[in-house]
Amino acid sequence: MPVSLHHIVIDAHDLPSLARFWAQALGWRILSEREREVVIGTDVNAPVGICFMPVSDAKAGKNRLHFDLTSGAAERDAEIERLLALGARRVDVGQTGAESWTVLADPEGNEFCVVRPKGTLIG
């Protein structure tokens, strides 16, 4: 039997704050909150969640892994503004300006993208 993805783990300085940002961004909820671990997900039976673990060192450089978020095409700009209001910020990772995605960073500087709807990416 192959393994399955359980959690995506994000190192964080302020676990509760970063977990709240991502829970609000994704419409998820806090499933477990301990001193050294906060888990978010859609519900306790969800196949995958995000786990926030403490780290003491500062983030250095661009992420080697990032999330791509999507919404309906008509809502994309409003979703970007909502994410900015939650504490995200725009970042430049070398974009040309012609991309079909927008690069943002969460409150601790982890980059993520808001991309066009999945249906327009396939084919």
TrEMBL record:
<protein>
    <recommendedName>
        <fullName>VOC domain-containing protein</fullName>
    </recommendedName>
</protein>
<feature type="domain" description="VOC">
    <location>
        <begin position="4"/>
        <end position="117"/>
    </location>
</feature>
<dbReference type="Pfam" id="PF18029">
    <property type="entry name" value="Glyoxalase_6"/>
</dbReference>
<dbReference type="InterPro" id="IPR041581">
    <property type="entry name" value="Glyoxalase_6"/>
</dbReference>
<dbReference type="InterPro" id="IPR029068">
    <property type="entry name" value="Glyas_Bleomycin-R_OHBP_Dase"/>
</dbReference>
<dbReference type="InterPro" id="IPR037523">
    <property type="entry name" value="VOC_core"/>
</dbReference>
